[in-house]
Write a structure and sequence with these properties.
Lipocalin, globular, 138 residues, mainly beta, 9-stranded antiparallel sheet
Length: 138
């Protein structure tokens, strides 16, 4: 009896823990979205769940309606989107979404010059076990 208890204890201590630097994980992110529309600024709560698969370079948001392609990922920073300012005079747009892997800081910056809109999200993300992407039929 003592041997089985000792063996179980050794297994618990030596079993590898799931690494926070795993290639597949979910992030639960909460923070604040700051929206500037013309001259009116509003702040509201921000909540988002991300499913990330760094091996395949894919991710999805919340209910996972679409699987998207990551821009880049390295040991310190995950860049989901990085579209620099582009477009014509009234259609200039930019979007950048990054996650700091050391602190969990999630930042979204979007700007649409034609709509006179700027969005800044500052959130903190916590890792969770990976939820696989939805199965497809074809």
């Amino acid at each position: 009896m003592l041997r089985s208890v000792t063996a179980a204890a050794v297994l618990c201590v030596t079993a590898p823990a799931q690494s926070m630097t795993s290639d597949q994980f979910d992030l639960v992110c909460t923070g604040t979205a700051d929206v500037l529309q013309g001259t009116t600024r509003t702040a509201s709560p921000f909540n988002q769940v991300l499913r990330l698969d760094l091996r395949s370079g894919q991710y999805c948001l919340d209910e996972c309606d679409r699987i998207l392609t990551l821009k880049s990922a390295d040991p310190l920073l995950i860049t989901l989107v990085d579209v620099p300012l582009h477009g014509g005079l009234l259609t200039k747009r930019m979007e950048k979404r990054t996650i700091d892997r050391r602190t969990g800081a999630y930042r979204i910056d979007e700007m649409d010059v034609g709509q006179l809109t700027a969005v800044t999200v500052k959130a903190t993300c916590s890792p969770r076990a990976f939820t696989p992407f939805p199965k497809t039929k074809f």
